[in-house]
Write a structure and sequence with these properties.
The complex is a heterodimer. Chain A is an all-alpha fold. Chain A has four helices and no strands. Chain B is about 75% helix and about 0% strand. The chains are: A mainly alpha, B mainly alpha.
């Protein structure tokens, strides 16, 4: 393994942090007044749902050791969320389902 | 009153914090295993507070990539925060000063954004401070734990926790999709497009960051055109 120079590392981390912060900061700095345009308001209303849906699917199926265990976790999450359980319950329930299915699969193999 | 807002922020931040610990422990482990010193892994987590963005950046650092490559990769993967930050800018209290807005911008992650969008009230500075504080501590602390104790969690457990954050996203999407048909359509359309980008060979060349931006803009614009939302609907949702 090649040794990474400290100067290079610090510079690189600074570049990553600066770019990331600029992306987050610019809209907050620019749009300080409420936007009254109905189209833009509606657009921003849908953004959270579309962005989270696109990030979750299909990535969720590859988020664990195997697709079947991830699918079980996904099903558990959808069911719990449909029953209006809170964020933590849904997250832990999904992980528990994954754990059980993965354990069963490992035992069978 | 303001202290109450801070406490509510902390409370809402705890599930995010728990989800972050498992992911950041994994990040700390892989970073150190690939040759990044412990202090650098912790510094990356503290200053970036992103998942995919800093994972890719760290890979590039290990490969001794140029700063330009590093900047472009970070930009493309994290550009979605621009839209999220824009949404948050419309939900913060109008009287919030520029300094506090710029400070809150630091903590716009997928999860903090998602939870802040769920809040019925306008977002105050103390609420945002609380909501950002716990996850950042979890993210940075988890990295430190993972980096120092590289084999703390059995792999089957950390792999199971890998789904936790997606579970949280599902918990945010589904309840409003049950109530509003338009949200349901938006979600379904986004999922179908995302699967197309992922599984159709030609489209797969596009990086994940870009495909999410394209889907978000296209679907949100289509829905805003077909199903515009009046400000009143938004209040009682």
């Amino acid at each position: 393994m090649q040794e990474i120079r400290i100067g290079y590392l610090l510079g690189g981390i600074a570049v990553m942090a600066a770019v990331t912060y600029m992306i987050r900061m610019l809209p907050m700095a620019i749009f300080r007044k409420k936007i009254n345009n109905i189209f833009i308001q509606s657009f921003l209303y849908y953004v959270p749902y579309t962005v989270l849906a696109a990030m979750t699917f299909p990535a969720i199926f590859y988020s664990t050791q195997s697709v079947p265990s991830a699918a079980a976790g996904c099903a558990a999450a959808v069911l719990l969320a449909y029953k209006r359980k809170g964020l933590l319950i849904v997250a832990v329930g999904a992980a528990a389902a994954v754990f059980i299915v993965q354990l069963a699969m490992n035992l069978m193999l | 009153m303001r202290y109450e807002e801070f406490k509510e922020g902390i409370r809402d931040g705890i599930p995010i914090c728990l989800g972050y610990i498992s992911v950041s422990v994994a990040f700390g482990m892989t970073a150190v295993l690939s040759g990044i010193p412990v202090w650098a892994a912790v510094l990356i987590s503290l200053t970036n507070v992103t998942s995919a963005g800093q994972f890719a950046g760290t890979n590039l650092l290990v490969a001794q990539g140029t700063y330009l490559e590093l900047a472009l990769t970070t930009l493309i993967i994290n550009i979605r925060y621009f839209l999220m930050s824009l949404s948050v800018s419309q939900r913060v209290e109008e009287r919030m000063g520029i300094g506090k807005r710029l400070a809150a911008a630091f903590g716009i992650t997928d999860e903090i954004f998602a939870v802040s969008m769920q809040r019925k009230k306008r977002l105050s500075a103390p609420y945002m401070a609380g909501l950002i504080l716990t996850p950042v501590l979890g993210w940075t602390g988890g990295t430190l734990i993972g980096a120092t104790a590289t084999s703390l969690m059995p792999p089957i457990l950390s792999a199971a926790l890998g789904i936790a954050l997606y579970g949280m996203f599902i918990a945010i999407i589904i309840p409003p999709a049950r109530i509003h048909k338009s949200v349901l359509y938006a979600v379904l359309l986004a999922v179908v497009m995302s699967c197309c980008f992922y599984w159709i060979p030609g489209l797969k060349k596009l990086s994940g960051g870009w495909s999410i931006i394209i889907i978000t803009v296209a679907v949100s614009a289509l829905m805003a055109w077909k199903f515009p939302v009046s400000p009143e609907d938004e209040e009682d949702e």
